[in-house]
């Protein structure tokens, strides 16, 4: 006894040299971690008994590549440091070389075979890809063997069909454009004209309406009222232009002209002809009736 510190330090150094953690060593030897730590610190009294001390020393030594029998003899006082090299004996090989090789082969772990398995899997995948490509080539042969004349006829028919469809589409678009422009055209006309009143009908108007009033010849007073409220009141000078926007969806409004001969009026850019040769161009109320595009 008395070599516990030496034994523990030697085992600990061997473990560190092999880069084995205490937790990994516990898994290898099945010895509780606290006992392994006790051995490394030389505290053998913490172990269950002398039998377990010798057993744990041998298991620890085997896991880290040390001579367990020598360390047990050292613990029992039968040997001392330095005598191990003097009494080292050649390792006895039991059985033939073939048997030894087979024994070592059986002890190989799955990790040793992993590169071989991966290489085999890669080779299998390459063979599979080549086989699939060859199968695709064989299946594509009938399509390639079609005659040139057949392809030419098909292409000709397709081209003619495309030309017919294009012509029909252009005709349809042209008809729709013409119909749309006809439907969208706004019309302005005067109805029921008298000396002081006139009804102006505006059909297919775009909402909202923009009025533009231009003065000419001489001064003229102008007023625009919607539902009795004036949106514009102005005395125009010759060449003066005023504009106003009629509120959306307004169907009726009134334009009052103080001297109608001195005013030009446009609705959404279209001129309003309110002159009546039967009456003198004096003060006149233009009652607008509007219908809008759907």
UniProtKB/TrEMBL annotation:
Cited Pfam families: HTH_25, RodZ_C
Gene3D superfamilies: lambda repressor-like DNA-binding domains
Segments traversing the membrane: 113-135
Protein origin, superkingdom: Bacteria
Polar residues composition bias: residue spans: 146-155
Domain Cytoskeleton protein RodZ-like C-terminal: residue ranges: 218-276
Stretches with biased composition (Acidic residues): 161-173, 181-190
Keywords associated with the record: Membrane, Transmembrane, Transmembrane helix
Molecular function via GO: DNA binding
CDD domains associated with the record: HTH_XRE
Stretches the record annotates as Disordered: 82-106, 146-207
The name this protein goes by in its record: Helix-turn-helix domain-containing protein
Phylogenetic classification of the source organism: Bacteria, Bacillati, Bacillota, Bacilli, Lactobacillales
């Amino acid at each position: 006894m008395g070599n516990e510190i030496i034994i523990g330090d030697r085992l600990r150094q061997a473990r560190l040299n092999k880069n084995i953690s205490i937790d990994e060593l516990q898994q290898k030897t099945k010895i509780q971690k606290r006992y392994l730590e006790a051995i490394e610190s030389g505290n053998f009294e913490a172990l269950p008994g002398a039998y377990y001390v010798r057993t744990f020393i041998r298991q620890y030594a085997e896991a880290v590549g040390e001579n367990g029998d020598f360390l047990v003899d050292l613990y029992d006082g039968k040997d001392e440091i330095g005598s191990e090299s003097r009494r080292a004996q050649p390792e006895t090989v039991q059985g033939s070389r073939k048997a030894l090789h087979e024994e070592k082969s059986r002890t190989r772990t799955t990790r040793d075979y992993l590169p071989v398995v991966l290489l085999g899997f890669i080779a299998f995948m390459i063979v599979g890809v080549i086989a699939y490509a060859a199968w695709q080539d064989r299946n594509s042969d009938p399509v390639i063997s079609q005659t040139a004349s057949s392809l030419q006829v098909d292409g000709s028919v397709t081209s003619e069909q495309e030309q017919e469809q294009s012509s029909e589409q252009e005709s349809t678009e042209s008809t729709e454009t013409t119909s749309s422009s006809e439907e969208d055209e706004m019309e302005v006309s005067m109805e029921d004209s008298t000396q002081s009143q006139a009804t102006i009908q505006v059909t297919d108007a775009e909402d909202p309406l923009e009025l533009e009033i231009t003065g000419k010849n001489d001064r003229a007073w102008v007023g625009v009222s919607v539902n009795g409220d004036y949106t514009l009141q102005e005395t125009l000078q010759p060449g003066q232009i005023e504009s106003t926007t009629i509120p959306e969806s307004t169907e009726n409004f009134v334009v009052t002209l103080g001297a109608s001969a001195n005013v030009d009026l446009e609705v959404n850019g279209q001129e309003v002809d309110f002159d009546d040769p039967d009456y003198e161009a004096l003060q006149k109320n233009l009652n607008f009736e509007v219908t809008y595009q759907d």
